[in-house]
Amino acid sequence: MLRRFVISFLLVLGCICAWGRTRPHYGGSLRVEVAGDPWQGPDGLARRLVLDGLTALDANGVVSPALAVEWESDGNDHRWQFRLRQGVHFHDGSPLNSTAVVMALNTVCTANCPWTAVRAVGSTVIFTSDSPMPNLPALLGGDAYLIALTRTADGQTPANPIGTGPFQFTSLNNGLLTLTANESCWHGRPFVDEITIASNRPIREQWLDLSVGRTDIAEVPPQELRPAQQQHLAVVVSPPVELLALEVSDTGALTNAVLRAAIAQAVDRGALSNVIFQKQGEITASLLPQSLTGYAFLFPTDRDLNKANELRGGLTPQPLTLAADGDPTMQLAAQRIALNLREAGFNVQVANAHNAPHADLALRKLPLEGADPAAALETLLRGAGENVPVAARNPTALFRAEHDVLDLKTLIPLLDLPRAWAVGSRVRDLRLRADGTPDLAGASLEGTQ
Predict the structure, then answer these.
(1) How far is CA 173 from CA 29, 30, 60, 140, 236, in A?
(2) Which among 19, 59, 71, 237 counts the fewest CB atoms within 10 Å?
(3) What are 123-133's pLDDT values in tens digits?
């Protein structure tokens, strides 16, 4: 009897100790390093920590309430009304109200907005449009429409971002951004007291800092997943959340749609996947991934150089510029595409996107977010600068809508890419958002009280 009691006691004690080790702790400073600018959209980590949207996409890509608690449409989706959450305040103590929301939206969206007009009426925000807006709730959960305070109580423009999110801006010194916990956040205080984000850190330096305990979270680009695993880093990987695509101008030298079709046939997606992205990207000729629609396989992905030369028909277009951002991998991918196009008779030079804003071709990463295919397609097209509402609500109509866009040959899908992060040993409960960025508000640190 005594022996049974002792065994039971030890089992209970073990469970209590295990629970104490794994349950989230409050406190501590979480250290993150990134290669870019944490404020830069569409995936800057700091933006989602400081700012909220009217809606949000949960980890599964489903639209959920955020600063708005409910919404409804009428007039065949030409008008939407969003009711704001009560009792929410910006970090400076200013109350969140419909006027502040409208001012914020008018600041971030000045052209090609999903709506024609937005206005404040009591505790609601009302959107109207000349065209239907069937996907507006999902669109408002995107990075482009996060709500920041535009005027302080004394009528001044804030010097630093002020939002309603789980963390608030504290300082930015020599590339080190410090955010502190918002004690009165409407969706609960975050576990850690502080987050520091070091910007513009090369990937290898991030990993070195992670290995010696100088940081807790580091980036792992898709093409570096295998080396990260070989170094025994603990890595969390998202599903495909970005589309690598080639944007093709329909003006100037490429006004001729046949030339654009020749470019589409000349690109070797397999080489991009195998050589540049180390087989971590899923080859695609569809705008939306197979997992979301079930029909992506219907769009052929194979290169056809003979067809490309046939379409070009002996025409020798003037020299073309292909722009890509300064990331070394994107530049390498652009060089590979330029080589493909030269083999098809095009004269192509690669440039940094910063120096070639009006390039004939642009290599871009576009967001793949959300569980609703129509909303995901519209988000992607808007990311490419296309103001194209997508009203399709069944697979056949959605396929037709996507096919119509692809037929223009102004947007050539190449690869579906995941996002990944290396995580230090003291980080607990780190999950990824629908866009593949880490949800740092829900993470905690081992050993804090």
Answers:
(1) 17, 17, 36, 32, 29
(2) 19
(3) 999 999 999 99
